[in-house]
Amino acid sequence: MPIATVNPANGETLKTYEAMGEEEIERRLQLAEATFRTYRTSTFAERARLLHRAADLLEADQANIGRVMTTEMGKPVKQARAEAAKCAKAMRWYAEHAEELLADEQPAAADVQDSGASRVLVRYRPLGPVLAVMPWNFPLWQVVRFAAPALMAGNVGLLKHASNVPQTALYLEDLFHRAGFTEGTFQTLLIGAGAVDGILRDERVKAATLTGSEPAGRSVAATSGEMIKKTVLELGGSDPFVVMPSADVERAAQVAVTARVQNNGQSCIAAKRFIVHTDVHDEFTERFTAAMRALKVGDPLLESTEVGPLANEQGRADLEELVDDARRSGAAVLCGGERPEGPGWFYPPTVLSGITREMRIHREEAFGPVATLYRAGDLDEAVLIANDSPFGLSSNVWTRDEAEVDRFVRDLEAGSVFVNGMTASHPAFPFGGVKRSGYGRELSGHGIREFCNITTVWQGA
């Protein structure tokens, strides 16, 4: 894939970039290694000052970088500005909490005495240069939720961003540099996917994090495993959205629409499979389908637009294949389901019912504004349907019955369970999945410790 900005609203190529050659990659690896030797000794106060400055600059840049993101990958511009604001919030959260999260830990006195030591502590130390392989769907947020904790821990970052968001990738490098971080602290590598393996094999790169597709995750994990390097993977998701009879069905249907079409439906944590108890199935379906049908699809730079184009032509083709396969296999199309005429990679909000296990869309992630509806006879069946997926990123449950809440929290196979609300990430809470959704955690104290050397210090009498 060429490194280029291609406007998904009309297919126009706006900017193209040459991939960095071996000499430039080597220069940047040398710079990262050299910078880490000094940066690792900086204080939390020094790092926090720089990260607060980056947050200030990002807030000031909200309108401009929002338009850049929208032009590169198609999200509605209001959502793009909100993404920038969320990134600034995460930067400030880590700037304010990193020192506490990485403070030395003191084991129990009895255990210290039993070990024969006069003092034992556990210290978190940075690893070194960390490679981040990031996707296009949240081109700022995915990077910042890695970069903010990594930099506050004393690591340095190397970013390989998706090839269709090069302007956003370069903006991030410039943002950290303008904030006062030295040149090698955070670098953007304009490279294709083929160059990732060689960088992962370089001894100067100590760890990697990837958010993206399952095949990309397998590749990075395989190479990192061979090189014995730590990885964190956040891969696909096909999150269930379960509605039980005690739920506020009207509210659940309203939230379900946002949960499905946020970011034009191109979100790993978007609700995709709507599992509704038979007692409220028809009411929910009517409300949900009507609201999906009423969404305004159009130019993502217009403030009134609710759903913009998909990010690329292949993504739309992949989504169409899933819908067409389901239709051929007997699914009912309650709204949408047909590619609109005209330029751009648009696809209408679509609702499918009558889904069976034989349909591809039952097992594969639909990365776009397509929802699938299931009818469940009781809680046990709802759990079975929800867990009948290779993915386990997040989940949504709507019920006022606390006994049902306990059952869902116990039995759902997912990294998160959101009750009476839609899945959202927050810097204070761990984020990640199970099964083919990946491993490791981002955000919170768990995320900042992922790329730390957890060092036991034992001192004798």
TrEMBL record:
<protein>
    <submittedName>
        <fullName>NADP-dependent succinic semialdehyde dehydrogenase</fullName>
    </submittedName>
</protein>
<dbReference type="InterPro" id="IPR044148">
    <property type="entry name" value="ALDH_GabD1-like"/>
</dbReference>
<dbReference type="InterPro" id="IPR016160">
    <property type="entry name" value="Ald_DH_CS_CYS"/>
</dbReference>
<dbReference type="GO" id="GO:0004030">
    <property type="term" value="F:aldehyde dehydrogenase [NAD(P)+] activity"/>
</dbReference>
<dbReference type="InterPro" id="IPR016161">
    <property type="entry name" value="Ald_DH/histidinol_DH"/>
</dbReference>
<keyword id="KW-0521">NADP</keyword>
<comment type="similarity">
    <text>Belongs to the aldehyde dehydrogenase family.</text>
</comment>
<dbReference type="InterPro" id="IPR016163">
    <property type="entry name" value="Ald_DH_C"/>
</dbReference>
<dbReference type="InterPro" id="IPR015590">
    <property type="entry name" value="Aldehyde_DH_dom"/>
</dbReference>
<dbReference type="InterPro" id="IPR047110">
    <property type="entry name" value="GABD/Sad-like"/>
</dbReference>
<dbReference type="GO" id="GO:0004777">
    <property type="term" value="F:succinate-semialdehyde dehydrogenase (NAD+) activity"/>
</dbReference>
<feature type="domain" description="Aldehyde dehydrogenase">
    <location>
        <begin position="3"/>
        <end position="457"/>
    </location>
</feature>
<keyword id="KW-0560">Oxidoreductase</keyword>
<dbReference type="InterPro" id="IPR016162">
    <property type="entry name" value="Ald_DH_N"/>
</dbReference>
<dbReference type="Pfam" id="PF00171">
    <property type="entry name" value="Aldedh"/>
</dbReference>
